[in-house]
Amino acid sequence: MYYPARGNAVTIAQPAPSWRCLRPPSLAVLALPNSILFDESCHTDRRISVNDFLQRLHRTFYKSVIFNDTDDFLQHIETKLQGANECVSLIFDEPMKLLDHLYERRIAHRLSLFIFYWGARRPPSSRIVSFREPLRAVVITRPRQEAFRIYYNQARPCSDSQLQLVNWYDGDNLGLQRIPLLPTAASVYANFEGRIFRIPVFHSPPWFWVTYNNNSHEENEFQVTGGRDHRLLKLLAKHMNFRFKYMEAPGRTQGSIRSDDARESNDSFTGGIGMLQSRQADFFLGDVGLSWERRKAIEFSFFTLADSGAFATHAPRRLSEALAIMRPLKPDIWPYLILTIVFSGPIFYGIIAMPYIWRRRWDNPDVEHFTKNHFYTSYILEITPRVLKNKPMRIPSAQQMHKQLFERCIWFSLRLFLKQSCHELHNGYRAKFLTIVYWIAATYVLADVYSAQLTSQFARPARETPINTLQQLQQAMIRDGYRLYVEKESNSLEMLENGTELFRQLYALMRQQQSDGQQRFFIDSVEAGIQLIAKGSEHKVVLGGRETLYFNIQQYGAHNFQLSQKLYTRYSAVAVQNGCPFLDSLNNVLMHLFEGGILEKMTTAEYAEQSRKIFRNDAQHYKDVVITKTDKSSVNRKISEVQSRAQSRDSDFISPLNVRMLQGAFIALGVGTLTAGVILLLEITFFKTFP
Fold it and tell me: What is the CATH number of the domain that holds 104?
């Protein structure tokens, strides 16, 4: 008897010492208490003792684990599979009693090999025992003494659960007929021999273009007309020689966890992923993103797309031209500019007034001067108490400071910064130097920079600040009322639900959008979300894959949308059933396509084909309008609409200067005139009341 170890065969009856150093993986043996296998076809030796067999197994230095309880044995296999370790099991029991447990607990896997000792001359009939994929089952029969036949259920690429003779052992003279013991999966599944695969699909451009038929009498309710993954699937079918049949995915979604309580369960997904779990489908393509929650339920091939997460919103819109005169300087500069203008007048007043203050001196209060005579006031105060009061006296200099110097300095600085005509206040050197500094700052720093930026904004009007990061998106949702949308049961939704703290905050803000108990933040597809943004009625944001978003915004005009930065790395791959036996063969083909750049070329070709299709549709639509509309006025109206749309699109980039752009200056002039008139009326009223 032989045991396969990663393509090699190790004999038990005649072990070779050189094989002991290889240390093959452990063997799990299930032998129930008092288990004796009867061979109905062998008359010389009717029975085989399990204890004797295990003793002979241990003499070969095999590392084995023996179980006499079925539940412990199944739990051991599950633990091995969770660690992605290959597990080989030798079972001394009838397959019918164990197969149901293997399928229910999803232990059937390509990494797990189950060897059943049948003991009869012929293998069991497929009507009695059905070894369905992905279960790897070996049945050993014993046609005569010292002879064994090895039957394998995955010797053929078709999934018909039929056992096929792949090897035999003759202990008398021939030994093992073929090495390795079992055929490799790469050789078996290199050619599927026309096998038909069931593949869920739904409309998700550019990966699949699906047209749904409204006629219920037709057998096919939908038709796949194209797409990147449709081309990839046809290429795989041609290379691996299989056929495929499309099935409509439940809910037309990829699939998500049914409820929060079922997150730890493996059979809790909906959509196309749920069909893979229930083994109703074989493949699933269409930008199926990888995630930890999905990985526990299904498996993924080598990635077919290295993508990034992103979100799309409307292009930055033109800001109101009424405030154009306030925008040349950034918001953080305006406070410093206002403070500079406010403090310039008091500083100018201090420079002029300080010399007058320094020239003042104190007089001696005890001596009073009267012509050439001097009078001492202290003596006079002694002889005439309470008649005179001693007050210190200031003797000013010959030059007198203007009474309204402070007000004049304030108005002088304001008129200087506003480029108005003004006269010199003082002829001192300090005042002249400061006046020159103010004039240079107002003329060459403020006026020229302001005029240059204002002219550039008139030539290319200012727009809103683009939203490129998650932090900006969060602020826009809180401050400006942006509404976030995501495709239902998609990988992007799982990222919001199970992501980091920032993603969870966005998810909480998104859930606040629901009204009347309805979750209005779900969309059927990314294309539907792009259509919502194209309408432009509200501030909307769509989260999804960057490639999918980029493709869909091309259909409605890339100039109408703003695509964010790369948020996180996401990979898309072909989803298969858990434990898929031909996953390695599929990975080999996909890796060759990726290394050869074919996957990238297919994606680029799909973009180019869509661009040509859009151009043909627009041309045909224009032709139909001209032909079908017999009324000349209606035709002219349509043509004028197209021309006006084109002109408006051109005006988004550059537009000539007009009076409308200067409305902010007229508004400022009107506000200033109104303020001056109000102040004038107050002054007239004030002076009439208090003459």
Answer: 3.40.50.2300
User: What is the 3-class SS of 543-563, one letter each residue?
Assistant: EEEHHHHHHHHHHCCHHHEEE
Which residues does the chain have with pLDDT short of 50?
1-22, 38-46, 216-217, 262-266, 363, 388, 393-398, 621-623, 625-636, 638-639, 642-651
Closest listed residue to residue 223, CA positions, set 255, 244, 247: 247
* Interval 362-373: pLDDT, tens: 545 555 555 555
**330: phi then psi, degrees, rounded to nearest 5:** -70, 160
**Cβ burial, residue 553 (10 Å; 0-12/13-18/19+):** buried
Q: Taking Cα atoms as reference points, which of 111, 110, 65, 109 lies closest to residue 91?
A: 65
CA dihedral 138, 140, 141, 144 (to 10 degrees): 150
- 412-417 contacts at long range (C-beta below 8 A, 24 or more positions apart): 412/345, 412/348, 413/341, 413/344, 413/345, 413/348, 413/438, 414/341, 414/345, 416/442, 417/341, 417/344, 417/442, 417/446
- Tell me, yes or no, whether 636 lies in a domain: no
| Residue 196 placed within a domain | no
The C-alpha atoms of residue 394 and residue 375 are separated, in whole angstroms, by: 18
d(CA 521, CA 478): 16
Q: What pLDDT shows up at residue 426?
A: 77
Cβ atoms of 313 and 228 within 8 Å: the answer is no
Q: What range defines the domain where residue 350 resides?
A: 328-360+409-459
Number of domains in the chain: 3
Separation of alpha carbons 260 and 590, rounded Å: 35
Phi, psi of 622 (to 5 degrees): -65, -40
Cβ atoms of 105 and 78 closer than 8 Å: yes
**The domain boundary residue, chosen from 444, 459, 474:** 459
Rounded to whole angstroms, the Cα distance separating 555 from 552 reads: 5
Which of 152, 183, 214 is the endpoint of a domain? 183
Q: pLDDT tens digits for 457-467?
A: 766 767 788 89
